[in-house]
Amino acid sequence: MRETLAKLLAAATLVLVLGLVLLFGWRQQQRIEQASMTVDPASWAALYPQHYASFMRTADNYGRTDHGGSEPYDKLAAKPFRLRAFAGNAFALDYKAARGHYYAQSDQRDSRRTRERNPPAGCINCHAAEAPALIATLGWEQLHAMDYNALRGDLHFGSACSDCHAPDTMALQVTRPALLTALQSQGVDTTALTRDELRTYVCAQCHVEYYFTSAGQQLVLPWALGRGLEQVEAYYDNIGFSDWTHAETGAAMIKMQHPETELYGAGVHAQLGVTCADCHMPAVTEQRLRISDHWIRSPLVQIEAACGSCHERGTPDSLRARSVALQDQTVALLAVAEAALTDLMDAIVAAQQSGVSDEALREARYAQRRAQLRWDFIDAENSTGFHAAAEARRLLEAAAALAREGTAALQ
Question: Over the range 197-222, which residues count as b (16 or more CB within 10 Å of their CB) and which as e?
């Protein structure tokens, strides 16, 4: 009797366990389907609570606002030279440092650059989680033919889980067509990207230089000739591209955006195979689970987790001091380039006022374009030169030299 009862109890327990497993699987499938139907990160919370909690900290302030905190950081007020460098460009209206990823859409929506100007709709590629769905619905060409304000009411979320992950498997994925096209132009097989490659490329969907074509306002990464500054410059020169005409000097200028991927590619970490996620999303423990930190921020605010796994011999203080020293060097070289560019702009303005012809000014204006392109490549890049300190030094020294040559040409 007891043996029969035990068997019945065991069978009932097995049925209960199987039922619970099936119920859990059904609930998980329902959650996956729900996550697939919306880009709201909150819909992923039930599936990946630790990752969601970590990501939501990108709305928090943890100190230096130029490291991705929640407090606005006015780059124009911090460096008035930028006002003159971007004279005539929308960046002279409003230029804030990037905050945490949580704010990617709201910061764009509230910027004077979108409220007082009407930029191309292609801007949403990096600033709205709705971008892939809108591209699928409207088509790439039709969406990019529109202006930003035509889509303003359709945009509600900044960076989101679905930008980088498939909801059913959590696998990394590239969701922005412009990056895929740029990689393919360099001969990269985008159907066979490794996980380590994706740990950089999901970031490169947005942290790159780009431009909008004059025909159709289509978003393009200027990588066809290569990702280095000189290759990007040659690409722009070959197609005769400029973002705007400088209001003071009349030079045809290019505004660099946020070329983190390009500068990182010239640095030692990229050469050693270190990915963006290795440093900006190191392994951390959340609610007793080991995950990649989705509180995406500067390694300087979490040196032990971000740097310690590789730099075992360095203390946090020594690693921080070395990093800050490299950034201080970049800041000093930026100032030298800015002084040389100021002299060049002063000289061009004086020459214009004295009646010098456009033909005679052509060489000096081109020098301004080339010098500022190099300065802006480093100034707009968010690591203050750390991603490739030697390359940053080379480009800033070249910027100062080109500006001085332009001034000498007028004299």
Answer: bbbbbbbbbbbbbbbbeeeebbbbbb
